[in-house]
Every structure is written in structure tokens, then in C-alpha cells.
Amino acid sequence: MKKTVAILFGGQSAEHNVSLVSAKCLLEALNTELFTPILVGISREGDWYQVNEELLKQTQFNKPIDFRKNGEEVFLNPGQKGARLMEVYGQKNPVNIDFAFPIVHGPLGEDGTLQALFRLLKIPFAGCDVTSSSICMDKDLAKRILQNHEINVSPFISLRRYQKVQYDIVSKKLGKTLYIKPCNMGSSVGVSRASTKEEFESAIEIAFKYDDKILIESAVEGVEVEVAVTGNSYPKASIPGSFKTSDNFYSYGAKYLDKGETRFQIPATNDDSLNKNIQDFALEAYKALGCEGFARVDLFVTSTGELLLNEINTLPGLTPISMFPKLWQESGISFTDLITDIINLGVERFEAFSKRSTISPD
Question: Do residues 127 and 342 make contact, with C-beta atoms less than 8 angstroms apart?
């Protein structure tokens, strides 16, 4: 029997447009012999709309959908057998939701908020659970937990909006070239490279536009590597991949707008032993942060061969140029099979969670 899968996309973060294209690719890859898609677009204001498939398939990075003009406003209503999708202004036949696949990148989507909603409404969902989603979204908190597990991370300090710091002091600790980024954001939004006092001050101002806590990191000499991971209790890692870009770093423009020249290399190195170490390192970090379902692990291989964890993205991009599907395709798993596996993992976790006792001991 087919499962009704609600694909949620859009959202209120700066990654709204990226989410639309990820959802479009997810829809095209979904095995419609097993699943019936229901499309739910979340506007920049936070309203939910049911959107038709043809409209989503036409979306582009520079042509986002106006949900208010092209969709029916809906909400999730709890029921005895899970949740139902209902129109705000009345619907005679509400749609029962069997599974939720959120591909809402960034805050208020990737940070545990949607995941908590699905948990409350007893809907199995794709991706990491509430706690791991929240932890991984906060790059400062994630790095501290990884350090507690003795997993090497790129050197950093965090800064709150009310705190002040001087470039001269930071550069003595972390080096002259620094990367400044919002703690709770993805897709390189708000990220800047700074090598002077003026660049540093400007970068901090930009980062604080997107979050109240920012991260200041050392520039690591080495290669940026990404590993796609799927699984619950027994996760598996894809072939690692690396990239080189003409930009100073893998910026939003390089990722999605074809600004600059980016070259991908899969596998990441010609050393099979090193590639295996990278996979093991990624799995160790994935498990340390309690990840389940799927995630992309980003790390550095330094010029001396040391592995440093950069961050874990719990709802990685699924666009045509995104590394997560590319890495699995190179590992022998098609995009369609990958999406089916992720849905099955979400169902598996939900069934395990449902078996937990809710009865107080005598």
C-alpha cells in the first residue's frame, strides 16, 4: 500500500530558495510506485500552503514560488492515526499523512523545530531527530560536544552579540586569516573570509545579520572533504569527495549560482587507506552527535594529513549540484533508491520510538 509522503520546503531562513530546488529534485526522484507526494510550501512569513507538482517542477533559484498566489493555505491537525493535512478555510476530505520529509534548510526547519512538531503529532519523518538536529545546527555547541568525544575540530571561538573582540587578539590565537560565520545557518550564508582588521569587523557585522551567536575559525591549510552518511544504529558512509573553487571558500555563489569555478573530485584522494580513514572519521562524528537518517559530514584533511571536523549538515542540499546525492551516486546508489532508503530509516526509527514504555513503574 502506498504511503502518503508530505514534502515540506521553503521556510523562513535565508536558504528558502535552495530549499525549493532541493524539494523539486526530491519530488522528481521519489518512487511514485511506493509513495504519493503531498507538497507543502512554507512561506517566508511561516504560513503553510499545499502546492501542486507542476508549479514546484518549474521553480528555479532565481524564480521562487509565491505560495499565496499558487496554493491553498493548510495546517496539520492531530488525529488518532497520526496527523491530517487540512485547509485553513475548510476541507471536506482531509489528507492523512503517513510520513514527513522536511527539506527546509536552515533555522526553523533544520534546527529541530519541525522535527519536534512531527514527534508531537506522531508522524514518522526523514532525517535526524530533535536533539541531534538542534545540536548540529549550532556549530559552536556541536564542536564542543565533538571535542568532548576527542574528535578533532577546526580551531574556533564563539562570540555573542553583546561581546566585543579585537582582530589583533583573535589573530594571535587563531591566525591572521579567519573565517567568520553565523552559528545557526547553512549554505555558506553570512560566511566571510578576513585577513585584516577592516575585513574582520565587516565580516562580524555580516554574520550577526543572521544570528545572535557567531563562530570565528582558523583558516585551515588543506583540502575540504565531504562524506554523505545514512543510517540509524548502523550508519554507512559514502565515498568521500573533495572540491576546489576559484572563490576563497565554497561560497553560496559557488554552490548555487555558478559564481566562480568549482571542480569536484570523487573519491577525495587517490589513497584508498586515507579515504577509508575519512569515512571512519565521518561515521565517528555522526554517531557522537546522535545523528540518524541522513546527514553530510564536512571535514578538512590538512597538509600534514590530520583530519579536522568542520560541521555536520542534517538536511543537506539535494539540488543537481549538491554533493550529498552526487557522493551516493558515485557509491553505487541511485537518487531514487537513496530517497527510499531515507524514508525507510525514518519509519524504522518511528516504530522503535513507538515501542518505548509510557507506563510509570509501580
Answer: yes
Give the DSSP per-residue string, 186-218.
Answer: -TTTT-EEE-SHHHHHHHHHHHTTT-SEEEEEE
Q: Is 189 or 16 the better-scoring residue by pLDDT?
A: 16
Question: Are 96 and 141 members of one domain?
Answer: no
Query: How far apart, in whole angstroms, are the C-alpha atoms of residue 51 and residue 53?
Result: 7
Quick check: helix, strand or coil at residue 106? coil
Give the span between the Cα atoms of 238 and 347, in whole angstroms.
22
Distance of CA 54 to the CA centre of its chain: 25
333 with 229, same domain: the answer is: yes
CA distances from 286 to 148, 280, 296 (A): 14, 10, 9
Partners of 84 in the β-ladder: 77, 96
pTM assigned to the model: 0.88
The closest of 129, 248, 144 to 194, measured between CA atoms, is 248
More confident residue, 53 or 344: 344
Q: Which three cell numbers stand for residue 351?
A: 516504530
Dihedral sign from CA coordinates of 106, 110, 116, 122: positive
User: Cα–Cα distances in Å, from 202 out to 89, 196, 199, 211?
Assistant: 47, 10, 5, 15
Containing domain of residue 174, as a range?
A: 156-218
Read off the pLDDT of residues 235-289 as tens digits, 9 standing for 90 and up: 999 999 998 765 555 544 555 455 556 678 999 989 999 999 999 999 999 999 9
For residue 167, being part of any structural domain is answered with yes
Q: Measured between alpha carbons, how far is 56 from 70 in angstroms, rounded to an integer?
A: 10
Residues in contact with 300: Cβ distance below 8 Å, sequence separation at least 6, in sequence order = 154, 220, 222, 223, 224, 225, 307, 308, 310
Q: Residue 326 maps to which CATH number?
A: 3.30.470.20
Residue with cell 566562480: 260
**pLDDT score at 251:** 47
The whole-number pLDDT of residue 359 equals 72
Residue-wise pLDDT for 274-300, tens only, equals 999 999 999 999 999 999 999 999 999
